[in-house]
Specification:
The protein has 75 residues and is mainly beta. It has a domain of 52 residues. Helices cover 5% and strands 32% of the residues. It contains one helix and three strands; from the N terminus they run βββα. Strands 1-2-3 form a three-stranded antiparallel sheet, with no helix packed on it. β2 and β3 form a beta hairpin. The structure holds FE2/S2 (inorganic) cluster (FES). The site of FE2/S2 (inorganic) cluster has 12 residues, from α1.
Length: 75
């Protein structure tokens, strides 16, 4: 099992983060550290950036996908 933090894009739902992440502000200061949570990608959560399950009642439809390959250009 990897010790790296993992992100998994779920079909018709959130991005599941497994591991510990530091949340930083615009200046790079850590203001929160959390682990094992889901990020909203449907835009309907009332607790952004976290998923609150609203994607289900809004019938969010989007396929799961892999993260870009290492040789893909960054945005
Ligand atoms: S993905 Fe779950 S509330 Fe948006």
């Amino acid at each position: 099992m990897s010790e790296n933090t993992r992100m998994q894009v779920r079909a018709n739902g959130s991005i599941r983060v497994t591991g510990t992440v530091d949340f930083v502000d615009a200046e790079g200061n850590v203001f929160r550290t959390d682990s094992d949570f889901s990020l909203c990608r449907c835009g309907h959560s009332n607790d952004k950036p976290f998923c609150d399950g609203s994607h289900r009642s809004n019938n969010f439809q989007a396929p799961a996908f892999d993260t870009p390959k290492e040789d893909a250009p960054n945005n």
